[in-house]
């Protein structure tokens, strides 16, 4: 029977993407069964994305039965002109000023470059924590496309043929997104570990 892995997140858009990213290739037997729990986890206020993800998964571990394999992810949007801010704080900026407010933050700057970073922290069934990170470079632009997911409408990735994430098909975003890069590393780890159990 496939082992279970829990993804702790309260973000339905992340869940949708991660389910696509971790889906087994056609004809392949799934190596694990992915389930989701929405716990309210405290998020460390720290400039280290790795520390934030490690702290987040440690809390998730404490809430689950010992031996449960679990992962979390934290996603940051880092402005070049702000030396990496808002970074992991982007969630709170979005809540207070929306995508337009994020665009306005860069109004006085010629440099609109931004980096999207997803940091995955996976605690295996022995309680050992593994961290994986994916990055995508791009720039901040006036909102274009669907407003469904966070800052997707203002992030134009360098490899996106001039489209914002929000203007792209999900499968195309998944080819180049910071999340897909981080989860490709987790997948590789899980596939390597599948013989010994997760
Ligand atoms: O346009 C976007 N494209 C993305 O690919 C993306 N990934 C995350 N986000 C947003 O950035 C903040 C991260 O904060 P975050 O990592 O703490 O997430 P969260 O609190 O929503 O969920 P979780 O912590 O329960 O998993 C939240 O506002 C998310 O909505 C994204 N926005
Ligand atoms: Mg969060």
From TrEMBL:
Subcellular localization, as worded in the UniProt entry: Cytoplasm; Nucleus
What does the record give as EC number? 3.6.1.66
What cofactor requirement does the entry state?
A: Mg(2+); Mn(2+)
Q: Which SUPFAM superfamilies does the record cross-reference, listed alphabetically? A: ITPase-like
Residues annotated to bind Mg(2+): 43, 74
- The positions annotated for binding ITP are 9-14, 56, 74-75, 149-152, 173
State a GO cellular component annotated for this protein.
Answer: cytoplasm
- According to its UniProt record, where is this protein mainly located? cytoplasm
- Please give one Pfam family short name: Ham1p_like
Q: What GO MF annotations does this protein's record show? A: dATP diphosphatase activity; dCTP diphosphatase activity; dGTP diphosphatase activity; dITP diphosphatase activity; dTTP diphosphatase activity; dUTP diphosphatase activity; GTP diphosphatase activity; ITP diphosphatase activity
Keyword presence, Metal-binding: yes
Cofactor binding notes: Binds 1 divalent metal cation per subunit; can use either Mg(2+) or Mn(2+).
- Family matches, as InterPro entries: ITPase (IPR027502), ITPase-like_fam (IPR029001), RdgB/HAM1 (IPR002637)
| Alphabetical UniProt keywords | Cytoplasm, Hydrolase, Magnesium, Manganese, Metal-binding, Nucleotide metabolism, Nucleotide-binding, Nucleus
Q: Which reaction does it catalyse?
A: ITP + H2O = IMP + diphosphate + H(+); dITP + H2O = dIMP + diphosphate + H(+); XTP + H2O = XMP + diphosphate + H(+)
Source organism's superkingdom?
Answer: Eukaryota
Q: Which terms does the UniProt entry file under GO BP? A: nucleotide metabolic process; purine deoxyribonucleoside triphosphate catabolic process; pyrimidine deoxyribonucleoside triphosphate catabolic process
PANTHER family in UniProt: INOSINE TRIPHOSPHATE PYROPHOSPHATASE, INOSINE TRIPHOSPHATE PYROPHOSPHATASE/HAM1 PROTEIN
Please report which protein family the annotation says this sequence is part of.
Belongs to the HAM1 NTPase family.
Role according to the record: Pyrophosphatase that hydrolyzes non-canonical purine nucleotides such as inosine triphosphate (ITP), deoxyinosine triphosphate (dITP) or xanthosine 5'-triphosphate (XTP) to their respective monophosphate derivatives. The enzyme does not distinguish between the deoxy- and ribose forms. Probably excludes non-canonical purines from RNA and DNA precursor pools, thus preventing their incorporation into RNA and DNA and avoiding chromosomal lesions.
Name this polypeptide is given: Inosine triphosphate pyrophosphatase
Q: Which organism is it from?
A: Lachancea lanzarotensis
Give the lineage.
Eukaryota, Fungi, Dikarya, Ascomycota, Saccharomycotina
